[in-house]
Amino acid sequence: MSAFRFDDWDDRPATPVAAPAAPAVASASAPQAAAPRPALAPVNPMDKRVVNGHADINQLAPFRYPWAWEFFLNANKNHWTPLEISMAQDVHDYHHKLTPAERHVFENVLAYLTTSDILAMRNIGLAVMEKMSAPELQIYQARQVYEEALHTWTYQHCIESLGLDQQEIYNRYRVVPEIHGKIALANRRLERVMRSDFDMTNRDNLHEFALSYLFFAGIFEGCWFYNGFTPIFALQRRGLMKGAAEQLQYIMRDEVLHCAFGIRVVRQLLQEENLTLDPLRLRELWDEAEAAEAAYAGYILREPILGYSAALHVNQFHFIANRRARQLGLDEPFPGAQNVLPWLDEQANLRKEKNFFETRVTEYQTGGALSWE
Ligand SMILES: [Fe+2]
Ligand SMILES: [Fe+2]
């Protein structure tokens, strides 16, 4: 295949386009140019709002939400491409070292992730970003859209490297009800707020939007992704599938920021709009997320693997869900849940992990230290 050339357009006109004619000299009878428009009033940052704001959406500063700009700067410190991480040992591990139960776990985690990251991209890019009325919020979300696409590329790269059947892996969520359940639940949340006639000045719609963003940031990304990589990390801790696990560690760093940013936006939205979330709707949200996650865990871990089981997965979901609720300023949905996987938070810190396992040491963080939680 020939190398891609960045400046190889073939849609140039066959004949040179004539240079535009010089403007005619104004005659005495030509209309006079319009008077210069008076300068617009400077942007007052306090006119900015998360939604329904009045400030110029095309003017970044002065900031109302300087923390959003900080998120954007921090996001740019975690930069990699999946091609930079060797998958060679994973190919051997997958075909020669994993047990059938471990292969089942690995493939189904991957199958879930392939679909869910596309969904995450559509949610933030199509349902959320267009409703924001402060550019500093949109700028970070634009980066997030790119990162979700990068995550999808990463899964595709893993599938290609391991020689898995693409059609079968991508189609799995359609045929496995326990995977489909999580995707369907998220799709329902997305579709409720993505309608073209969704009026954000309506209080019920605002409440629906806040719940939806809370679901995607706090649960979909904050629990399902955060906790969802752990079966692969459990293999990594035993020296298996280390390339794929390292890819997921980079993704996890992005997801921790997506979750933290989304929670911050939701809190700001609730405060600005003087909105209180309906406790019954919240309870429903936690319960349906728990039911979907428990069914998923029961399927991917129908047989436990060394150091990991469906019960551990669900317990950890409860523990992380409580953390997200506290960060949202809400009551813990699963009081008394224990931290059954204390190594998971360390796993989110890539640098510590890489030193511990002495894998290929390449630090892609290009700026100062990142704070994860
Ligand atoms: Fe993602
Ligand atoms: Fe994300």
From TrEMBL:
It catalyses: a 2'-deoxyribonucleoside 5'-diphosphate + [thioredoxin]-disulfide + H2O = a ribonucleoside 5'-diphosphate + [thioredoxin]-dithiol. Fe cation 1 binds at residues 117, 148, 151. The keyword Disulfide bond does not apply. The keyword NADP does not apply. Its cofactor is Fe cation. It holds the Pfam family Ribonuc_red_sm. Keywords: Deoxyribonucleotide synthesis, Iron, Metal-binding, Oxidoreductase. Fe cation 2 binds at residues 148, 221, 255, 258. It is an enzyme of class 1 (oxidoreductase). This is Ribonucleoside-diphosphate reductase subunit beta. Its EC number is 1.17.4.1. Binds 2 iron ions per subunit. GO terms for molecular function: metal ion binding; ribonucleoside-diphosphate reductase activity, thioredoxin disulfide as acceptor. Gene3D superfamilies: Ribonucleotide Reductase, subunit A.
